[in-house]
Design brief:
The chain has helices at 4-12, 48-51, 70-83, 92-105, 140-145, 167-178, 221-232, 278-293, and strands spanning 2-3, 18-19, 28-31, 34-37, 42-43, 55-63, 66-67, 111-118, 127-133, 137-138, 147-153, 183-187, 192-196, 200-205, 208-211, 236-239, 242-243, 252-257, 261-268, 271-272. It is of the alpha+beta class. It has two domains: 2-135, 2-Layer Sandwich (D-amino Acid Aminotransferase, Chain A, domain 1); 140-293, D-amino Acid Aminotransferase, subunit A, domain 2 (D-amino Acid Aminotransferase, Chain A, domain 2, Alpha-Beta Barrel). Helix 3 packs across helix 4 (92-105) and helix 7 (221-232) packs across helix 8.
Length: 294
């Protein structure tokens, strides 16, 4: 048996480029909607669906007691399951309720939630596990100066599903960490940058934001809301292929994720992106206000 409480602790330790304000041991996790002591969180080693990565997941941020974009994350969990043919008996409302109860009983102020939906041999043997993990906050200097990124040639098999099949993404992220970079940007067989290993990628020129095509990426919940806020504040948003050979054509670049929100990019491989342009700093500011208000 693998003790998930141990896994949860390991994942709360700060990674390069992140820091965690405090360590908190959470008393409970949720299994199929039932709250149980964290020490009972186990996965049988013999469970082939888990060891083969037949599952989907979501990472959700809780900030000052507020669960950010809860409905959207739960809906995407269901969408990811549908993409890979993972049948189950859970509903969006059930997942929402389970998350709210877990946050309440753990008396959470700030944390990251990990939601794991793992398939079974039949619909009713699929399992839903929800864990509270220590929040990780990117180093504040990265928002001022921008993050470094490398590129890595890889295409995910199911780009629009957030699956547990993360080996190649893990290898790409490990290579980035070894290079002292914040993330690795994935390049497809056509030479276009699609997304990061755990982030969405954008280019900006003036007040025009370019995103890789939705069909080629996992459309992040943060990405969706950033683009919504951008449109509301006079930015033009378009989807186009972004060639790794034409980075000089843009004023700047940024990535988005649940943990990082909007993170400017300082360099991509040997390409110096310069300081974050003023229009990007403006977008970061208005998105921060949006998160407070919503």
């Amino acid at each position: 048996m693998i003790n998930r409480a141990i896994i949860a602790y390991a994942r709360t330790r700060p990674k390069k480029g992140y820091y965690s304000k405090t360590f908190m041991a959470y008393k409970y996790f949720a299994h199929n909607g039932k709250l149980l002591p964290a020490e009972q969180a186990n996965v049988p080693l013999s469970r082939v669906e888990y060891s083969y990565g037949f599952g989907v997941y979501e990472s959700i941020r809780v900030s000052k007691g507020k669960i950010l974009f809860l409905r959207e994350h739960c809906e995407r969990l269901m969408s990811s399951a549908k993409v890979i043919g993972l049948n189950h008996t859970f509903t969006v409302d059930f997942v929402e309720k389970s998350i709210k109860e877990l946050v309440k009983h753990n008396e959470v102020v700030s944390c990251n939630l990990k939601v794991l939906l793992i398939g079974g041999r039949t619909d009713d043997t699929a399992t839903l596990d929800i864990l509270c993990l220590n929040p990780l906050f990117p180093d504040r200097k990265l928002y001022r100066d921008g993050a470094t990124c490398i590129t890595y040639y890889y295409e995910r098999e199911f780009p629009q599903a957030k699956t547990l099949n993360m080996l190649s993404s893990y290898l790409a992220y490990r290579k980035a960490a070894q290079a002292g970079a914040y993330d690795a940007l994935l390049i497809n067989r056509k030479g276009f940058i699609t997304e990061g290993t755990r982030t969405n990628f954008f280019a900006i020129k003036g007040k025009t934001i370019t995103s890789p095509k939705s069909a080629d990426i996992l459309p992040g919940v943060t990405r969706t809301n950033v683009l919504k806020v951008a449109k509301q504040n006079g930015y033009v948003v378009k989807e186009e292929d972004i060639s790794s050979a034409e980075l000089h054509s843009y004023d700047g670049f940024f990535i988005t994720s649940t943990s990082a929100k909007i993170m400017p990019i300082r360099s991509i491989d040997d390409h110096d992106c310069g300081s974050p342009p003023a229009v990007l700093q403006e977008l970061m500011s208005v998105f921060g206000e949006f998160l407070v208000d919503n």
